[in-house]
């Protein structure tokens, strides 16, 4: 293989490194336990990844603007809870409940957006505060009791369309919709522009505040939808639901290639990241690894994935350089 | 309101019937709890605060929202306010040791409710014997599974484990294994499923575990609050069935909550280990108030709740000994 062919091969490997790593993880666990790569389990991986994945798609919007939203775990709890009250006390159906949950998420996102855009408080502090506020409000509404949803929500949560489980359908629709918004609309281009250089974006006439508000509303709406999709499978909401999930959501987005510094990432980043994390978790269950070792192995694998991804990024950067003299 | 009145009644029963020591003058008690996320913690919190207030004591409540460092600061704040005694529900066993030492160094008697410190030698420690309670519940499940076995093959048990940073979860896991060790020829190596006390984690891991091992004969969940999660995994697979019906998996849990009581009555589960909540609350209050009365600044005592297993066999006799069944009888699940 001459130098040029090797460079091309390296470029292909580098461009698709994350996907290849994902396939490697599937392959390694599959060789350990063949049932891991069975269609039922692969479907389970995507279904269980949908909870974090839907929220991670929303988080990608925020990360693209170099922001952060730490309140998603609490929104995952409070959004479905408000929907549950609407369903139980006002006879709203499942579809109506879903709309209420997303609307509640949008309201929570608007609160974050108001504090960040209008009052100019940094997103980390705002969303850390609302993390406690939203959860505390939910605990107040329920007096810390679990909330039982009407039975029909489980029928919805466990249903499937043409053999595809409902959570996977929601995940797919959200990911595709987000991809279209980010890659085919003016709003999407403005999100990237703000993440790359906010001052330059403002000078170019982009209404930075409005776009930023939009990403926080999107993030919270999708977090509430994610919570509703998961709760629809269980039928009961506990006070601890969603707690600490903000870190899983951020990890999924970053693992898929989104940058914490803004401007880099796609909707599919979140899909790949969330599915990869879930594949690792389920792989550890399949292989029967000691429970004390599982968190450590998860941490190591995720670190290795991000580390390899950073190597991949630097390699890509090197390949893109133009050389005056042939090497 | 019915639930609260039940808890007040339970607490009042504990105060009057079981003879809580009450100091001659009203005391100020700091009650610092880690959070109120399950029926058990809510019921325990209510029993303690109501009983103290009914007896004329002042209660300073502090919620740490699952932050051990915050709880330590809250306890320091209570000490600075000059409280007469402290009752804590700690976040974990390690932080409990630090908080107990902090209180004792400042000559304030302290009692630890239900979640034991990793060092039991200091403070008043009221703790359920989780290993023993789990063992009682699992022993019944093992006998049921063996009795309903088809053929001579070994049975496959599964355990949903709690957060392994929580001593209660570790005790329950130990009790599960201890019970199965009595039947070495009847059970395969148990399958462990992590839950981290989180329904979403339990859902994902249990679904994976059941896909990998579809022929489970016995399931024990380390907490009753996960039964709705188990149902959502088992039901589509035809494994959520009543005793005597095709597909029934011998199943049990631990806590003794209202849902478990209902499921036991309906026949979906076979046993649950029960922590005697009212005994534990009464024991913590009695001990701390007695220490205050005696002027004892560093009382050290371990009070163990032996608990029991409510099973399909003793349900009729012992139903109302379980706090969850008391709540259920008051319409807790209908509210």
Please, could you describe this protein's structure?
The complex is a heterodimer of chains A (327) and B (335). Chain A is globular and about 75 Å long. In chain A, β2 (160-161) and β3 form a beta hairpin. The longest helix of chain A has 27 residues, at 208-234. In chain A, α3 packs across α13 (267-286). The two termini of chain A are 15 Å apart. Chain A is mostly helical and 327 residues long. In chain A, 75% of the residues lie in helices and 2% in strands. Chain B has two domains: 2-127 and 276-305, Response regulator (Rossmann fold), CATH 3.40.50; 130-274 and 313-320 and 327-334, Rossmann fold, CATH 3.40.50. In chain B, the strands form two sheets. Chain B has a six-stranded parallel beta sheet, sandwiched between helices. In chain B, strands 7-6-8-9-10-12 form a six-stranded mixed beta sheet, with helices on both faces. The interface between A and B is large, with 41 and 35 residues.
SSE blueprint and pairings:
The complex is a heterodimer of chains A (327) and B (335).
Chain A: H1 3-15, H2 17-32, H3 39-64, H4 72-90, H5 94-118, H6 123-142, E1 147-148, H7 152-157, E2 160-161, E3 164-165, H8 166-184, H9 186-196, H10 198-203, H11 208-234, E4 236-237, H12 245-255, H13 267-286, H14 294-320
Antiparallel strand pairs in A: 1-4, 2-3
Chain B: H1 2-17, E1 28-33, H2 39-54, E2 58-63, H3 68-80, E3 85-89, H4 93-105, E4 110-114, E5 124-128, H5 130-147, E6 157-161, H6 167-180, E7 191-194, H7 199-212, E8 218-221, H8 227-234, E9 250-255, H9 258-266, E10 271-274, H10 277-294, E11 301-305, E12 308-311, H11 315-318, H12 323-329
Parallel strand pairs in B: 1-2, 1-3, 3-4, 4-5, 5-11, 6-7, 6-8, 8-9, 9-10
Antiparallel strand pairs in B: 10-12
Helix pairs in contact in B: 1-2, 1-10, 2-10, 3-4, 5-6, 7-8, 9-12
Short note summarizing the structure:
The complex is a heterodimer of chains A (327) and B (335). Chain A contains 14 helices and 4 strands.
């Amino acid at each position: 293989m001459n130098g040029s062919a090797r460079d091309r091969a390296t470029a292909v490997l580098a461009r698709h490194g994350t996907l290849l790593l994902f396939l490697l993880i599937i392959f390694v666990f599959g060789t350990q336990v063949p049932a891991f790569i069975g269609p039922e389990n692969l479907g389970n991986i995507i279904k269980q990844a949908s909870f974090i994945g839907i929220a991670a798609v929303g988080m990608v919007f925020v990360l693209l603007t170099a922001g952060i939203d730490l309140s998603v775990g609490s929104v995952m709890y409070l959004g479905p809870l408000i929907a549950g009250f609407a369903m139980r006390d006002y006879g709203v159906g499942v579809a109506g409940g879903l709309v209420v949950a997303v609307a509640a998420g949008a309201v929570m996102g608007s609160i974050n957006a108001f504090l960040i855009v209008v009052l100019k408080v940094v997103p980390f502090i705002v969303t850390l505060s609302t993390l406690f506020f939203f959860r505390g409000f939910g605990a107040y509404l329920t007096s810390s009791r679990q909330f039982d949803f009407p039975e029909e929500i489980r029928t919805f949560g466990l249903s499937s369309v043409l053999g595809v489980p409902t959570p996977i359908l929601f995940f797919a629709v959200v990911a595709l919709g987000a991809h279209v918004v980010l890659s085919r609309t003016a709003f999407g281009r403005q999100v990237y522009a703000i993440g790359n250089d906010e001052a330059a974006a403002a000078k170019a006439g982009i209404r930075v505040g409005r776009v930023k508000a939009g990403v926080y509303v999107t993030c919270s709406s999708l977090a509430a939808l994610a919570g509703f999709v998961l709760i629809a499978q269980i039928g009961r909401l506990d006070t601890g639901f969603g707690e600490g999930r903000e870190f899983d959501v951020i990890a999924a987005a970053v693992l898929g290639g989104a940058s914490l510094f803004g401007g880099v990432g796609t909707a599919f980043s979140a899909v790949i990241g969330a599915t990869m994390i879930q594949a690792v978790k389920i792989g550890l269950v399949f292989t029967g690894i000691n429970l004390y070792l599982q968190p450590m192995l998860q941490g190591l694998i995720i670190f290795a994935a991000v580390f390899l991804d950073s190597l991949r990024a630097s390699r890509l950067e090197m390949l893109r350089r133009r050389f005056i003299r042939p090497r | 309101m019915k639930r609260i009145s039940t808890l007040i009644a339970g607490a009042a029963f504990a105060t009057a019937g079981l003879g809580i020591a009450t100091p001659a003058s009203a005391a100020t008690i700091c009650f610092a709890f880690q959070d109120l996320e399950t029926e058990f913690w809510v019921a325990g919190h209510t029993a303690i605060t109501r009983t103290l207030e009914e007896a004329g004591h002042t209660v300073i409540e502090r919620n740490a929202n699952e932050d051990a460092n915050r709880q330590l600061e809250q306890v320091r704040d209570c000490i600075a306010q000059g409280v007469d005694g402290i009752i804590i529900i700690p976040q974990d066993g390690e932080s409990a040791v630090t908080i107990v030492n902090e209180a004792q160094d400042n000559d304030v008697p302290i009692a630890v409710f239900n979640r034991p410190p990793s060092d039991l030698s200091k403070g008043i420690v009221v703790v359920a014997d989780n290993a023993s309670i789990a063992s009682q519940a699992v022993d019944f499940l093992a006998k049921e599974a063996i009795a309903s076995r088809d053929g001579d093959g070994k049975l496959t048990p599964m355990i949903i484990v709690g957060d392994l940073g929580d001593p209660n979860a570790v005790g329950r896991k130990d009790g599960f294994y201890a019970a199965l060790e009595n039947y070495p020829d009847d059970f395969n190596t148990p399958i462990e499923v992590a839950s981290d006390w989180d329904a979403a984690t339990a859902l994902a891991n249990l679904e994976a575990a059941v896909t990998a091992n579809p022929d489970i004969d016995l399931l024990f969940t380390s907490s009753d609050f996960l039964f709705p999660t188990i149902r959502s995994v088992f039901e589509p697979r035809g494994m959520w069935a009543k005793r005597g019906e095709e597909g029934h998996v011998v199943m049990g849990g631990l806590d003794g909550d209202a849902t478990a009581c209902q499921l036991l009555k309906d026949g979906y589960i076979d046993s649950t280990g029960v922590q005697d909540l009212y005994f534990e609350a009464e024991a913590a209050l009695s001990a701390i108030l007695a220490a205050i009365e005696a002027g004892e600044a560093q009382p050290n005592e371990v009070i163990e709740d032996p608990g029991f297993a409510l099973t399909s066999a003793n349900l009729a006799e012992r139903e109302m000994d379980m706090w969850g069944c008391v709540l259920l009888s008051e319409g807790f699940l209908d509210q």
